[in-house]
Amino acid sequence: MHKSPLLQPLLKKRVDICREIKKSNNPSLRSSLNKINAEIKRTFIHLKREKWKELCKSIDAHTPDTKLWKLMKSLSITQPQQEECNTIIDDNGQISSDNKTSANLLGSYYQKTSKLTFNAMDKDTENYARKLVHGCRSSEHGIPIFKEFFTMQELNMALSNLDPSKSPGPDNIHGQMISRLSDWGKKSLLEIFNLSWRLGRLPRDWKKALIIPIRKSSKKASYPESFRPIALTNFSCKLMEKIILERLTYYLNSNDLLSIEQYGFKRGHSTADQILYFGQRIRDSKTLDHHIIQLLFFLTFQKHLIEFGEIN
Fold first, then answer.
1. Backbone torsions φ then ψ of 308, nearest 5 degrees
2. What phi and psi values does residue 221 have, to the nearest 5 degrees?
3. Rounded to the nearest 5°, which phi and psi values hold at 63?
4. How many Å apart are CA 275 and CA 286, to the nearest integer?
5. Interacting residues of 220 by C-beta distance below 8 A, sequence separation 6+
6. Which of 152, 193, 225, 297 qualifies as a cystine partner to 309, CB 3.0-4.6 A?
7. CA-to-CA distance for 136 and 92, rounded, in angstroms?
């Protein structure tokens, strides 16, 4: 739809205005940019309506069932964002004029916001955790479940629990391809997993990811914070992570190492259970003992994070 003769001149005009703003930084041009964006939006809506009318006219009593079924499936699936925006505004108020500059602005923003700082205590904790991991996998005193090689049964189970229709990572190897590997192909893949498991190292390419910015609902497309980054990793890496997760979950559950108060990221539990448990504690205190004083603290951080504290 972006290649429509009605829309192409408007898009070209918007690019020209963005370039002029970048050169002269004239505030009067910003009103022109807003007007052209509004006109593009109106034209886009008009084209969508016309396309829908044409589609409705093409359907009659003689339309094949296969065509109707494909149409129903396409309407039921959430469509990706069709809005093309290359006018990201940086911290200095400068507007990007092409997709490459917009991508660089988004990358710089994500790099700045996701950068973590570690103090001396954090590094000590990291070293301690590293020693624990190596201790679990040592040949003398290690835990067997963390030393044994992965089996074909574990690989097939992980394949059945992963969605092969997910988007591929940087290697462009789709999950459908791996799920349809022959026995020989699965055996070769399992050898790669076991080699990585034995050496304790991850292949370099598996550490890479494609970052796809998804615009948040009701957010302006001109600001980097309006986009949520989605990381697409290689399916092979996700498959090995699934196998390790199953082993780790089995070990934690079989040895009762998870707290009974752990609800998030726990199979068969959810954070809603924690809220119900918390509410039941309040009701029980009122019913069983009227002398217990319940103090509830609401601490709000940023916009959506709320922590609860209870003192008896």
1. -110, 140
2. -85, 5
3. -70, 130
4. 17
5. 226
6. 297
7. 51
